[in-house]
Amino acid sequence: MNALSRRQFLVAGGALVVGIAMPGAPPVAAAAPTLPVPNPSQLDAWLAVLPDGSVQAFFGKMDMGHGIEVAIAQIVAEELDVDIDRVTVVMGDTARTPNQGGASGSTGISNGARPLRNAAAEARRLLVEAAARELGVQPSRLAVSQGVVHVVDQPARALTYAALIGGRKFNAPVEWNKSVGNFMDVKVKAQPKPRSAYRVVGQSLPRRDLSGKVFGTRDFVTDLRIPGMLHARMIRPPKAGLVVGRVDAEALRAKYPAVQVVHEKDFVAVVAPKEWTAVKAARALTVDWVKGPPQAAWPGHDGLHERIRKSPVLRREEAVKQGDVEVAFAKAARIVEAEYEWPLQSHACMGPACAVADVQADRATVWTGSQKPHSVRDGVAKLLGLPVDAVHAIWVMGPGSYGRNDAGDAAMDAVWLSKTLGKPVRVQGMRHDGTAWDPKGPACVHRARAALDAQGNVLAWDFTARGLSRVNVSFNESDPRDTLAGQSLGLPLNADLGLGAPSESYGFANKRLAWEVVAPLQQRYSPLRTSHLRDPLGPEVHFGSEQFIDELAFATGADPVAFRLKHLTAPRDIAVVKAAAEKCGWTPRAKTAARSHAKGAVLQGRGIAYATRSGTVVAVVVDVEVTPSTGRVWARRVTVAHDCGLVVNPRGLVQTVEGNVIHGLSRGLFEEVRFDADTVQSVDWASYPILEMQDAPEAIDVVLLDSAQAEPSGAGEPTIRCVPAALANAFFDATGLRMRRAPLSPERVKAALKKAGFR
Amino acid sequence: MPKINFTLDGRSVSVEAEDDQPLLYLLRDELGLNNPHFGCGLAQCGACTVHLDGEPLRSCVAMAPMIEGRTVTTLRGLGTPEAPHPLQQAYVDEQVPQCGYCVNGWIMTAAALLKKNPQATDAELRAGLAGLKCRCGTHASILRAIKRAQSRLA
Question: What is the ipTM of this complex?
Answer without folding.
Answer: 0.98
